[in-house]
Amino acid sequence: MDIIIGIIFISIIGTLLHFMYEFSGHNKIVSLFAAVNESTWEHIKIALTPTFIWTLYDGAVYGMNENYFIAKTTSILVIIILIPLLFYAYQLLNIRPSVLKALMLPYDYIVVIDGDDIIELLNEKDESIITKNSPWNIHMRRF
Fold first, then answer.
1. Closest Cα to residue 71, out of 5, 12, 6, 1?
2. Nearest Cα to 130, choosing from 141, 143, 142, 114?
3. Is 103 left (phi over 0), alpha (psi -120 to 50) or beta?
4. What is the C-alpha to C-alpha distance for residues 90 and 80, in angstroms, rounded to an integer?
5. How large is the angle between the packed helices 68-95 and 40-62, nearest 10 degrees?
6. Which of 6, 8, 20, 63 could cross-link 59 (Cys pair, CB 3.0–4.6 Å)?
7. Tell me: the pLDDT tens digits for 30-54?
8. Could you give the CA distance from residue 137 to residue 118 in angstroms, rounded to a whole number?
9. Is the dihedral of CA 115, 120, 125, 129 positive or negative?
10. H or E segment at 125?
11. Contact between residue 106 and residue 121 where contact means Cβ atoms under 8 Å apart
């Protein structure tokens, strides 16, 4: 049950911290914990702040467990890695949606790209499987 309460706590506090700087009238002390802009660092900050606050409670209850600090360190590292990873993956797919086509291919295949167009698809033996001008190549043409 503590896990569910922790998720709800971190989500609510993180959401409030997203807007707290504006609500505070641009208070400099609030800016230490709340998001000042939409950068990835600010999103990491608003995720870590409630996580650290929750860790104060959580540590008092479960801190004597031998794996507690390893688990908390792992969760903090996941936050630090996952937020920029998701943000920049979203940005890449938003800017170049054609990348989705390449991501759906089998492991051993190579894609030849020109701008946003997939020109050719090669298998693991570098044999051309599909070219841009293939008559049956409807799914690889630009949408």
1. 6
2. 141
3. alpha
4. 16
5. 160
6. 63
7. 999 999 999 999 999 999 999 999 9
8. 11
9. positive
10. none
11. no
By the 8 A CB rule, do 71 and 88 touch? Answer: no
Give the position of tokens 């599909």.
130
| Spatial separation of the C-alpha atoms in residues 6 and 28, rounded to whole Å | 27
Structure-token pair, residue 9: 């706590």
User: Which tokens hold the place of 53?
Assistant: 């606050």
What is the DSSP code (8-state) at residue 72?
H
